[in-house]
Amino acid sequence: MDRIELIASLAKDANSLVDCGCDHGYTAIKALKSYNVSHCYLLDINEGPLNNARNNVAKENLSDRCDFILSDGLKNFNEEADVLVIAGMGGLLISNIILNDYEKVIKFKKIIIDAHSEIEKLRANLISKYFVFDNEILIQDGKHNYVIIEGHFDLSKRMKYDLLDMKFGPVLRQNQTPLFKEIIRTKKKHFTECLKKATDETSKSKLKIELAYIQMLEGTNK
Ligand SMILES: C[S@@+](CC[C@H](N)C(=O)[O-])C[C@H]1O[C@@H](n2cnc3c(N)ncnc32)[C@H](O)[C@@H]1O
């Protein structure tokens, strides 16, 4: 299963899905065609990608089940929907989209996030705003590994996530899949080799901290 298909599958049976930053529109198309999603709202900040999505949806004869909204994050979205997808962007941009329209975002039953960078900062921001990590799935698609986060906000209770949860993902570190273990092994090897070659004290300190996190993770797994 590729990344887009996995994201679409997580929205299975939803009445309505919002794809914020839809670009090509493939996630909505997959969700409508294969995963019994009834209606999609496709949002993008740029006209070009939104038109691209509109054309791709039309080619599949799905236009009557879609709305297209030009919007910076959720600013111009004023409907109710079950599932929110924010995928294929940096973690800090995703954080900003969520925090800028927090009152809207907390209403979604399910939020699916696929950040392509700065995932630790994203997790920290989500945790500080009462996010519940229901699942995290690590997949390999082509040459890249992706972390797909599934969750929701629950303002009535703050989950007890710690520093290692923020760093490695609360569900990922719990599940310890072979891919997760391989990524940690590769990182450990990389940081150790970099440390041997490092000459300045700042780089050495940073690498030692990264290795200490991995040691702490290994310690909790024993
Ligand atoms: C790399 S594409 C990802 C497309 C798709 N979601 C995916 O996962 O393959 C990022 C898209 O997000 C849009 N985008 C960037 N910032 C945005 C924002 N603040 N609000 C809505 N869309 C945004 C871009 O125009 C672009 O179409």
Structure description:
- The structure is a single chain.
- The chain folds into 2 domains: 165 residues, Vaccinia Virus protein VP39 (Rossmann fold), CATH 3.40.50; 43 residues.
- The chain is 48% helix and 23% strand.
- The chain is elongated, with a radius of gyration of 19 Å.
- The two termini are 32 Å apart.
- S-adenosylmethionine binds next to strand 2, strand 4 and helix 4.
SSE blueprint and pairings:
Blueprint: H1 3-10, E1 16-20, H2 26-34, E2 39-44, H3 47-59, E3 66-70, E4 83-89, H4 91-100, H5 102-105, E5 110-115, H6 119-128, E6 131-141, E7 144-153, H7 163-168, H8 170-175, H9 178-197, H10 201-221
Parallel strand pairs: 1-2, 1-4, 2-3, 4-5
Antiparallel strand pairs: 5-7, 6-7
Helix pairs in contact: 1-2, 4-6, 9-10
The protein binds S-adenosylmethionine.
The site of S-adenosylmethionine has 17 residues, from strand 2, strand 4 and helix 4.
